[in-house]
């Protein structure tokens, strides 16, 4: 045994000497190291990053790296550069950007390629990222805009040196199917990272010590999370692509007449004179007098958002100018501007500034910038990998970075005007946390949408589970709830005549049929949107933590409860801010299993109390929202308003759950400018002592966004004996079912098992 260890160490020292020739290790910030190998690449994601926020220094600095960085092995292969790292037997891996199909990434191959649809579960998506986080409390980021493949313990290297890794023959030769087909999975302890087409690699390693601190460090290194404008937390409604001015105004009036809160109205492709590619000029048929539409919408206190993408139509006023600063391939016959060149940025930016920003357009939906659809071999709409651009960037790198560069340029336009915006964007990449832009998709699986909320939290991005058509009324309400419980509540009717609560079925909706009970449904929807408006102070505060401390406002429970093995794979529940846990009801079900981590929790609707550390079956009516509140919470809830204006002051009531041991903090600023970057904000301390609430405001912001008007103590509902007995019975039944299910998977553990029966997987 000893000799084996000595030989292994000699081999590893030898291979380190071989590999470390060109390997450089630098500490670049507290808790952040850079490992460089070979020839540096051009157009790295860090080139487009603003300087790291000072807040980075607020995180613990352990001086030494989280693992021996010299143990990273590099080698050159014809495909590019390979880095090899080790992972421990029980290490779990999360991240890789906006992954769609899985939460835990150990044992997976992850291919980092921007694409508008997933292709199997190989890792493609709107915002895949070369960045993962380990449960051991460190993060690994590959600083490249090239295609990267990560083998996350998914491959096993053959041990070539005889005797070293030789496996003993099995004591009992295999007889079962699983044994014969060798399907028992042994996770490999190796990570291989391949960057295609380079001669060098840069790896950043982020220390924790906790996973939460890794992601905080990453977000702060990116420049800190964005704070949305206050209106950005309200409802967004996107009207049908073909709508003209009258139809838009009709629906804008509808919300106001029905007093259904709505802050932003989005126009889809039909506002352009040419949409695919884009002219960025108003369609004279649909919108003959755009200024009047803008005025009327402002008169109704709406913010207006315009859909577009970056491919410039030959009839666009900027086409001729931007052509020299565009790539050599067209997309939908339009030019693809190179947003790395100052000229393309200036032409595109100043046109948008004069024609839209200065006319009162508050935001944009930046579509199609994922720039690929590998599924469509016959009609690939985007530029190819072999495209070249004036800055020298190639088709691969530009495909990966286009969403990031596009959102950055547009956010900066608003930043220069000292006005916050909230964009929608369909692609992103590393270091996007400071940009107020929300990812969305045409994919539409509700369960994936929820998983994407969790995955977004590992990579400094925001994701919107938007609502369109649905399969049933229940599905509609549950999807609306999930949208409410996310960073961006949006109803996207780009192919629907009417709001989906008129009719959830796409065809019937477009025939203007309405559900018999649509007015009732409308009331349920209205109550839900009002709840979103109530949550604004709480959500705004969560975003302030994102900005100042890098804490993701929406995140997997594994970041808050890393020791709790029940949450390691839990992809259907997540934290919304620090105090609320969401457990969405998917596909219109009316009950589901909810796991409560340690501590005491309360049902937000009924105030019923749950002891943590166990699962419960929870039933909820459509009027109830699957949100659970941590014991000790002071939850600031606003009186709902129909929309946010610069004059809005929110009347806040604090709900007190249990006995808070420390004060809650509430963030306040002017809600619209970037003056908070100069220190113009307040933190309000809310404390509860001897059944009395106390408010202390600190900071230099003069305008008060909130008026604290009341306090309520939410004592748990008194349980009736019957409901307690029923609950207990339900739980025993559940435990029995669970035990039975696990024994079915492992029949040999059944008492009295003689090997003669049991399910066979074939
Ligand atoms: C899609 C986009 C949709 C909608 C549509 C309009 O690509 O994802 O949300 O905007 O374009 O054509």
Report on the architecture of this protein.
The protein is an alpha+beta fold and 762 residues long. It has four domains: 2-158 and 185-222, Immunoglobulin-like (Sandwich); 230-549, TIM Barrel; 554-627, Golgi alpha-mannosidase II (Immunoglobulin-like); 634-713, Sandwich (Immunoglobulin-like). Helices cover 24% and strands 23% of the residues. It is built from 15 helices and 33 strands. An eight-stranded parallel sheet has the order 18-17-16-15-14-13-12-19. A six-stranded antiparallel sheet has the order 1-2-11-8-7-5. β3 and β4 (80-86) form a beta hairpin. It starts with a helix and ends in a 17-residue tail after the last helix. The relative contact order is 0.10. Bound molecules: beta-D-galactopyranose. Residues 241, 268-269, 307, 367-368, 426, 442, 492, 494 line the site of beta-D-galactopyranose.
